[in-house]
Amino acid sequence: MDDFTLKKLELLCNGIRLPEHILTRFSGYRFKRASLSEGVCFDLFPSGSSQAIPINIAAREAFVCKSPFMYDENKKAIFKNGQHFVQASLVEPPGWYACVLDDGTSFQEVFQVHYHSILAASLTNFCEFKETGRGCRFCALGYQIEKPKIKSVEQVAAVLKELIKQNIYFNEVNLNAGTLLDEKKNCDLYLHIVQCIRKITSVPIYIQICPPKDMSFIDRLIEMGVSSLSFNLEIYDEELRKDSMPGKARISRERYFKAMAHASKLLGAEQISSWLIAGLEPVESTITAIKHIISVGAIPFVTVFRPLIGSEYEKRLPPEPNTLIPIFDALGTSLIHLKYNRQKTKCGCVKCNCCSAFAEVLP
Ligand code: SF4
Fold first, then answer.
1. What CATH number should be reported for the domain holding residue 101?
2. Is the entire prediction scored with pTM above 0.90?
3. Which one of 41, 132, 143, 228 is most buried, counting C-beta atoms within 10 A?
4. Using a 6 Å cutoff on CB, does residue 211 contact ligand 1?
5. Nearest alpha carbon, ligand 1 atom 1
6. Which own/partner pairs from 241-245 qualify as long-range (CB within 8 Å, at least 24 positions apart)?
């Protein structure tokens, strides 16, 4: 592993201390799912390179107060224990977040920007696994919500049309949601929104979804215009799956792999992925998961566990960077077998790479 990749892992694990005047510019995203939505995005500039490397760094969670990293906005640099670590610039939130729809919903409530120009939306602010006491313990969806809401086709359409009218650049739409227990309702939620988006724009659409029992739903999503899909296994070890994700663990690992293989045949391996959260299970287990995902023709997207505010695992700690080295080394080596061509990935977390060191270990 090269020095810069290790630096990225250190930042992903430790988070960064930001002064209050910077944090207030970034209103926390309230509808965060398992992901890293509430972190702050930076462009990192490794020495000797003019190419920006994206990263999403934790800045609000409790563990961050012990981080050795600080950002100096004047010097546009991240410092570790007072020593220069890497040049970096903040990715500022867009001005349009404050715009409001006729029904009073702010644009930011409908779409959040990931990195510079990815429009991301959680279609619900709740998850029925959580509502039935079987939610994923690392996930914060539903925290402090006033009432359960599903984003409407009209709201999504109205914001998209307004952004286009204002000439706001975006290069993909990234959709996820809490899980609805009725599979048809869960599938229709995505189908209706994708159908609506396709009438407005041809940008690639990425979806993160639990694998359905009925694989023909995947076909319908693709026919409707979905470009990339992610079936997020998150944890591979069966016992830890049951413990950390009592609801999702009822969906068998086999169904995840069947969905990945099915979708990969239709769209190609470059468009199909599965999140794995490093730090929630033994290193060997994550490495086995990486190999299994690749064996069915999909991409393992390894992220770093972040104890999100509002999740049951809020008081846990992220993994130590050194424990991630064998995982990311194995990821790079295993990807050789997939003959993966990153240029072909149209959209999604794999393309963005803010929340992982995936691209850094590519062969
Ligand atoms: S399935 Fe798990 S990770 Fe997904 S929204 Fe529900 S509780 Fe969160």
1. 3.20.20.70
2. yes
3. 228
4. no
5. 179
6. 243/137, 244/136, 244/137, 244/138, 244/280, 244/313, 245/129, 245/135, 245/136, 245/137
Q: Which residues contact 261 (CB under 8 A, 6 or more apart)?
A: 296, 297, 298
Instruction: Supply the range of the domain harboring residue 348.
Output: 3-361
- Judge if the beta carbon of residue 207 lies within 6 A of ligand 1: no
Q: List phi, psi (to 5°) of 178.
A: -70, 165
Q: Which atom from ligand 1 is nearest to the alpha carbon of 130?
A: 7
Q: Which residue is associated with the tokens 């001005």? A: 95
Q: pLDDT tens, 212-262? A: 999 999 999 999 999 999 999 999 999 999 999 999 999 999 999 999 999
Please list, in sequence order, all residues whose beta carbon lies within 8 angstroms of the beta carbon of residue 232, skipping any fewer than 6 positions away: 34, 208, 274, 275
Secondary structure of residue 194 in the 3-state scheme: helix
Confidence band of 50 (pLDDT split at 50, 70, 90): confident
Counted domains in the chain: 1
